[in-house]
Task: structure prediction
Amino acid sequence: MTESETESQTKSFYSDKLKRAVHLLFFRRGKMPGAKEWELKEKVGKNYQQVLEQLNTLLAELDLEIKKVTEPSSGQMAENEGGIQMDEPRYYVTLKGSLGLKEAKMIGWRIDNLAALSGAIAYVVAKQGKAPREDVEKVVAQKYGRWKAATLVDIFLRSGYLEEDDAGVMALGWRTKAEVNLPALMTKMTEGRA
Amino acid sequence: MEEKTKTGRHSLAAGRKELKEVIDTCNAIERRKFNPFFLDVKLGVETLREFFPLWEEFQDNCLDAHALNRLSEVVRLQNTQLKFQSSALYAEPEFVAKKFQRMSEKRLAEVFLQSWHPTAELEQLTNETVSAGLDYWNLLLPIQERWKRRDYARGKNPEDADTNTLNGLGIHGQDFEARLNGLWKELMEAHKIENGPIDYWKFVKVLDHQETVQRAYIVSFLVTYGFAKMQLEGEQITLLPVEQPTNKPVEGGVSVPIAIPSEVQQ
Result:
């Protein structure tokens, strides 16, 4: 076998694996997008991390990146060293850069909803990742009134930015963990001008 | 935790009560009702130690173990709080709430957008969606049949309603919220007088038809958000105010279309 033949075989091998990784990461199969680590291992192979690195290079040109979310379960912020069971890592494809106001409107977000979401997430983070629903609604209601606050909090729950347990305690949802750069949000919230 | 005198405390009942108080406080802290440092853990442990010799029954020992477990959870939360305070995410919740109140909507949205990297995903067909689609097309009447049923009167095309439009219609903003509260209080007053369920039409109907429609519209909000209960008995519709509403959309609720004729009969 010549050197060029081996090279082309390697290329096609990676090309096939890249396609499989793209399918897993982009197409939603269950309630959440992205793929779990074991899925990638099973479908792409043991060298899935190399495949993801290669895919990441390709996606970077499209202003996308693969993000590995290994944050602990909801409400366990800053408790990593306490021996708490971590969630299995999940890989998502997210936007590398950020959107402008007009672009956000184009993909269906209202400015007031985004504003309320930033407040709700920042408040839950300030309460160490967990806050009673009534407290979150009170904060949002300061700006939007309690009727709209209840509706907005429901929207955030449905879209996965927040989650609520049986005791009515809210925590950060999977989408916040995957999509929001929390240190940047908190810095901008606390330093932000009016 | 407030200091208590130790005299007269050495009874089983007093001990159980104190332990339950400790457990309740710990649970409230775990649900983020209070700051973890609200509880003096040392005092809690001393309380446990004080009553420990009194326990004879298995249940009392279980209660003691449970209280100890809850106290250890509070210690863990205190540790977490200290770590959190030294992290980049730390901010006082009250400060964040005030900032949120003061910042403009546009600025808040910009702040969020700068730290937001939405996920990219594609929707695709699944067996279930294909099956649902096929069912839809199989049940759909031919276009000619559907056109026969259509009312050809064309109205204005739907448009987006901005905040000003909604305010103009009186269904948004502080005025609207004041009207909701007003009608809720009116319903509670009527309930006190009648001492029972209020007839829907009796409550909603006023002389002006437009006002009747608006009252019906607001009542639908009160029912949806758990401020009032609607009961249907045959053709009779009654309302019952809820004094301590959950302020959340009622789960498992059903939509009840109510036509409002131009002349409502009482």
Observations:
- Chain B has a mean pLDDT of 81.
- The domain at 171-266 of chain B is CATH 1.10.10.580 (Arc Repressor Mutant, subunit A).
- Chain B has eleven helices and three strands.
